[in-house]
Structures are given as C-alpha cells and as structure tokens.
Automatic annotation (TrEMBL):
Keywords annotated in UniProt: Oxidoreductase
PROSITE patterns cross-referenced by the UniProt entry: FAD_PCMH
GO CC annotation terms, alphabetical: membrane
Cited PANTHER family: D-ARABINONO-1,4-LACTONE OXIDASE, L-GULONOLACTONE OXIDASE
Keyword check for Metal-binding: no
Entry keyword annotation includes Amino-acid biosynthesis: no
Protein name, entry field: FAD-binding PCMH-type domain-containing protein
Gene3D superfamilies named among the record's database cross-references: 3.30.465.10, 3.30.70.2520, 3.30.70.2530, Uridine Diphospho-n-acetylenolpyruvylglucosamine Reductase, domain 2, Vanillyl-alcohol Oxidase, Chain A, domain 4
Species: Actinophytocola xinjiangensis
Length: 406
C-alpha cells in the first residue's frame, strides 16, 4: 500500500479510491462502511490512516474560484497552487505553513499553522466547507452554523470535504530576513518584543549552546536593523545545516510577493530535510518561558536526535480541536532525524516537560501521549457532534479511537 510523505507510515488501507466526480464520491461514501479522506500525505501521525478504504480527491474536477474577498478551493488543491491563483487576482491569505505543498483540506483538518502573533492557524480563514457526510449527501457548513467551530479542524472525522471557502486579504509584499546566532539570554528577556518584530517570526534552535541557530523575520515594512545587536545574515541560510539554500524562499530583506516569502520552502523544491520525523506541542503563551527553560535543560538528550526546532506564535481561535483554541499560543516544533526508535524513546521526556504546562500535540505529527481530553474545553461537544454526524462510525479510524474521540 501507499506511504506518507516522510515514509514513516505505510497506510494500512486495503484500497485507495480516486473518484472523478462528486456523484461518484457520494456513492462511494454511502456504500463504504469505513472510509477516510487522504490529503497530500504530509502528516507524520496515523491521523489519516485506516485499515479500510482511503479516498483521495486529487482526481475530482474543479477549479479555484475567486469571488471578491472569498475564494472557493477544491479540497485537494495545494496551498502553493491556491496562492498562485489568488495572487493573479490581487488577493492573498494572511499566512501559510512552512511548506506550500500540503493540501488545503488536509491542512485545515489538523489545525496546521504558520507563525505570527496576529495570525491564526490556517483553518481560521475558513468561511464554509462543502462536505459529503456519512449518508452520502453533500452539505454546506458555514460560519453562521452553530456547529461550524466544531466542523473545521475535524481530523476527517465528520466527512469528506469537497471544497473549502476561504476569506482572503489584499495581496501584499514581504521581506524575509534571517538573523544568525542571537543569544538565548536576550531572546528570553525580550521574548514578546521579539515575536512581535514582524508579520511572522520563527526561532530556530538545536537547544545546545548559548545562542539560537537562526531567527527568521517576515516583515511587511522595513525589517529590524538588528535583533538585540545581532545584524542580519548577508547570505541565504537553510535552517538545517548541510541542506541546499536553493530550497528556501528569498531572504536578505529583498521585498517580494507574500506567496514567495510566507512559506520557508519553495514549492518546486524539497521542503525541510526529507529524511525526518516531526513533533510539535502548542502551549499557552504564558507558559512558554518555562517550557523553553525545561527543554534547554534536556538539550543534551534532544540535540543528538534533532535536525532543528522551530518556535512560532499562533493567535487564539475558537475552533474546538485547534491547538490554539481559546489561548494565545507558542508552538514548539521538532524536526527529528529519521531515527524512529530514538525519537520514540525521547518523546516521553519531552512530553513530561511540556504536558504539565498544558501543551497540546499537533494532530499531524508524532506524539506519545494519549491523554488529550482535558486539554480541549470542547472535547465532549466534538465527540457528541461526531456521533451525531456519523452514528455508524463510517469515518472513524484507530487514531480517533485510541485518543477517545469515538
Ligand atoms: C515538511 C513538512 C513541513 C510541515 N510544516 C508544517 C507547518 O509549518 N505547520 C504545521 O502546522 N504543520 C506542518 N506540517 C504538518 C502538515 O501541515 C499537516 O500534517 C497537514 O495536515 C498535512 O496535510 P495533508 O494534505 O498532507 O493531509 P494528510 O496528512 O493526507 O491528512 C491529514 C488529515 O486531514 C484529513 N483530510 C485530508 N483531506 C481531507 C478531506 N478532503 N476531507 C476531510 N478530511 C481530510 C485526513 O483524513 C487526515 O485526518 C508539515 C509537514 C511536513 C511534511
């Protein structure tokens, strides 16, 4: 059977269906007792997996349609392709993830996010979803629906999303500037000021030593002349040592369109390392200093297993299963080396440091804990919504069952 992007997961599905019309998809869903939607396969966890039938919407017809300040997007469209079309209409999304390769429906379903104190996760741009439900009917769920906030970051549990309507903003220019080796001491003392230094700010570290590896600032205006006295880099840098800088989006403060600066990685290149696993934990912002202190104390164990950590901010939202639900958030991400046994052995120590600070693991990345219910105030409402929408468990899978969402 097929594998995910990283190759750490072989899907257990017995069949992969690729319907070529919405009617075919509706019939397939209605006739199949257990079925899951598959996006562009960039999740590291088994969130998409099923021992039954997977359905990809990559062959469904449909085009990106811009209408005023809204855009309707076929579910399998990549953010990169969507961004290119939006830009030709003078429109934009306020933020993107580190890579433009992921599908819009897949990114929305797991609460995928970029960085920025005022940027919510990508799902916060969703105004409506067209979903094939458990009975095979196609229904639109809009922002004025009382169950909308439970239906957006939905892990594929409520049906197969066929198209997504997103709010857009006017297209804008950005500059991307990288500051190498900024001291931890200054970063911790001026953390809030630093995270507000641009439209989107990412801190990269391997936790070892007295300096961070790099800080990437994406600014709509002039970038800071320096960060705590550290001047910008004068050559392009990849956040993972040894990786080609051909793969990263334009840096050096050169202004250019939002879609060529918001992601770290270019659509026509390999994102990240490729030989990796990923984990991420989303924390209440006021617990972040303690989280960073605890992780620095674990540096000796983390650094040998790590390509790089990225620290980002995410604005609070009201989406029930979003990692940023109800709280301003700091997300601490780990791009691990492709060492599954070592990563599995280390995760309990990382989680022991973070879970007591009310961290929520990213749904699409690897995590060890099964103790999630108390971390989401609307958990039981989501369970009830899922039961109501899918009483026979057509869209359930081992991931949802293991975590108590079924
Ligand atoms: C190199 C790399 C970089 C990454 N960077 C970031 C980042 O910057 N920020 C971040 O938050 N995450 C990041 N991720 C994680 C990634 O964004 C998420 O795992 C995302 O969900 C992947 O989307 P996908 O289309 O590949 O979905 P898949 O992995 O295929 O599926 C994920 C979930 O979406 C559901 N789904 C997919 N399509 C549909 C549909 N049509 N209807 C209903 N449900 C559907 C699936 O059932 C499943 O539950 C990164 C991953 C990689 C590999």
């Amino acid at each position: 059977m097929e594998r995910n992007w990283a190759g750490n997961l072989t899907y257990r599905a017995t069949r992969l269906e690729t319907p070529t019309s919405i009617d075919e998809l509706r019939q397939l869903v209605a006739e199949t007792p257990r079925i899951r939607a598959l996006g562009s396969r960039h999740s590291f966890s088994d969130v998409a997996d099923t021992p039954a039938v997977l359905v990809s919407l990559a062959e469904l017809p449909g085009t990106v349609t811009v209408d005023g300040d809204r855009v309707t997007v076929p579910a399998a469209t990549s953010y990169g392709d969507l961004a290119a079309t939006l830009h030709t209409h003078g429109r934009a999304l306020p933020n993107l993830a580190s890579l433009p390769h992921i599908s819009v429906a897949g990114g929305v379903a797991t609460g995928t996010h970029g960085s920025g104190d005022r940027n919510g996760c990508l799902a916060t741009s969703v105004a409506a979803l067209d979903v094939v439900g458990a009975d095979g009917r196609l229904t639109r769920i809009s922002r004025d629906d009382p169950e909308f906030a439970g239906s957006v970051v939905a892990l594929g549990a409520l049906g197969v999303v066929v198209s997504v309507v997103l709010d857009t903003v006017p297209a804008f220019d950005l500059r991307q500037t990288v500051y190498p080796r900024v001291p931890w001491r200054a970063v911790l003392a001026g953390f809030d000021e630093l995270m507000a230094a641009g439209h989107s700010v990412s801190l990269f570290t391997d936790w070892a030593g007295e300096n961070l590896r790099q800080i990437w600032v994406k600014s709509t205006g002039e970038p800071p002349a320096d960060l705590f006295g550290v001047a910008p880099a004068t050559t392009a840098l990849h956040m993972i040592p040894g990786e080609s800088t051909d793969a990263v989006t334009a840096q050096l403060g050169v202004p250019g369109p939002w879609l060529d600066r918001l992601p770290h990685f270019r659509l026509d290149h390999k994102p990240s390392s490729g030989d990796e696993l990923q984990s991420e934990y989303l924390l209440p912002r006021d617990r972040a200093p303690e989280a960073l202190r605890r992780l620095r104390a674990l540096a000796g164990r983390i650094a040998p297993v790590l390509h790089v950590t990225e620290i980002r901010s995410v604005a609070a939202d009201d989406l029930w299963l979003s990692g940023a639900h109800g709280r301003e958030t700091i997300a601490v991400h780990f791009t691990w080396r492709n060492l599954p046994a070592q990563v599995a052995a280390l995760l309990p120590a990382v989680e022991a440091a973070l879970l007591t600070l009310d961290a929520r693991p990213h749904w699409g990345k690897v995590f060890a804990t099964g103790d999630l219910a108390g971390r989401y105030p609307r958990w039981s409402e989501f369970r009830a919504l899922r039961r109501d929408r899918d009483p026979d468990g057509r869209f359930t899978n081992p991931f949802l069952t293991r975590l108590g969402l079924v």
